[in-house]
Amino acid sequence: MPDFLALDPTPSPLPQGLSGVYSQVTQWIAGLVNSSSNSLSQIGHSIASLPAQVQVSTAIDTTAAWHLALYWLLVLVMVVGVIGAVVPALPGITLIVGAMVIWGLVVGFVGLKWALGVAIAALILSFVIDYLAGVLGAQRVGASNWGQIGAFIGMFFGLFGLLPLLPTGIPLLGLLIGTVMGAFIGEFLHRRELKLLQRVKQSAKVGLAIVVGTLVGNVLQGILALISLIVFLATTWPGSWA
């Protein structure tokens, strides 16, 4: 084998100037690695000692924040339920009871006994009020089933602004006018045995009685819904469970 192909395994010594620089760079790198290792070790020990305090506290704070957000969202739903108790054809106290049940499922029904009991009692009373104010009130003026069915149909069309005479689409205005018109038309079609003037008077009386009874019943239901909301806020205010 020629001499120029022979490989010498022994590295050539560095020049004297480069040897000093190489030694200093090596020492600096070794010191940097040791310093980094010590810092990482200290950080690791610090992190290992925190989870039992910091992580649990963070989880508790996050849960409380979600509970608080859900609480006020359900309160907003209950406010809509109070409005719905006054406005016919909209969910009222039923919405309030449903919101309370959702909150009870989240917190295990803690401190919810009084509020839920009042809301359920208000819901039962609202059905009784509907019957007394609507059916019995109309029957007192001799309203027939035609008049009551007509009032319901007129209320539906008036609420959604579907009547040709109500282009404004204002729900409350359409509700009142639609109910009166529906009750009047239904009663008028049914009382064919009466003379024209008597039919008009009877139909107008039925329409007015149904509307007045409905309004009185809705006001009473709104009061019950408001009481249910106040009891809920008084017994489950965030300070008592947060």
UniProtKB/TrEMBL annotation:
> Residues of the signal sequence?
none
Q: Indicate the transmembrane segments per the record.
A: 64-86, 93-112, 118-137, 149-166, 172-189, 210-234
Q: Which UniProt keywords apply?
A: Membrane, Transmembrane, Transmembrane helix
Highest rank taxon of the organism: Bacteria
Q: Which Pfam families match?
A: DUF456
Protein name (database record): DUF456 domain-containing protein
Show the taxonomic lineage.
Bacteria, Bacillati, Cyanobacteriota, Cyanophyceae, Leptolyngbyales
